[in-house]
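Troubleshooting: if your tokenizer reports a length mismatch, compare your output against this known-good record of 313 residues.
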Amino acid sequence: MSESIIKIEKLVKRYKELIALDHLSLDVTEGEIFGLLGPNGSGKTTTINCILSLLTFDKGSIKVFGKEMKPDSYDIKQKIGVVTQNVAVYNELTVYENIDYFCGLYVKDKSLRKKYVDEAIEFVDLRQFTKFYPKKLSGGLLRRLNIACGIAHKPTLIFMDEPTVAVDPQSRNKILENILELNRNGATIIYTSHYMEEVEQICTQISIMDKGKMIATGTKNELLKMIKNSETITIEILNINEETLSNLKNLPHVYDVKYNNNQLKLYYSGGKHNLVRVLDYFKKENIDIGRVYSELPTLNDVFLEITGKELRD
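Known-good structure output:
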């Protein structure tokens, strides 16, 4: 059994009449890439700041590495790395100097620090940019510098808050590869992102927050089973009458049918061979159809169904 790296029990955080965290509980085990998702204002940042002891809270408990987390828990904080959403480096320092500075907050031995800094530079592939100042770097390079500054001291618990926001696809792939490598090397990672495909790709466990509560937790496949939809079949068809629509609604496992702009959508809950069955129906009825494709639900579908589709501030 893997050990709990982070254990939160019944955490409450209030801002006067606003309850930011409402008896929130969370358990992150060693070796996970733990995806923490939620709409804007759901409490993700507040949760992370409480874990890092940057915020006080009203009730509950937080343990990190099995110990109570306090503002002066420097032995715990030394094992933690933080990669913030907003790039947090010094414009007056070069790439090398920035990484050396942040590593030096935790590693005082100069020879060991030099080794760690060099390894961080190689890890994020910034060797040819070590003498550059941040203002000379592209968005993707800045993100990679930000990561190097957060992980140079070899933390075993790493918080990554939107590390791929506003970067090109090549930089995003490089960052995701780095995250997977950090995890393979033993780091437990807390990952927040609005890019659902990233979370699906790299996270071993996922929690969805809303209104200060954890409303769903599990693997990707476990979360997908929480929603009604299991398959959507889309068919291009020029004309369709009400009788046909009614017959389609009565096919096994169909719970909804929509037809707009010559596009028919059938929504399924469960069942096997749904595509074969609907194609057999159209063939039997001698109805001409165009392109047909089937889609399985994604984590984005789970997120929207669980948290709602209304816009958030």
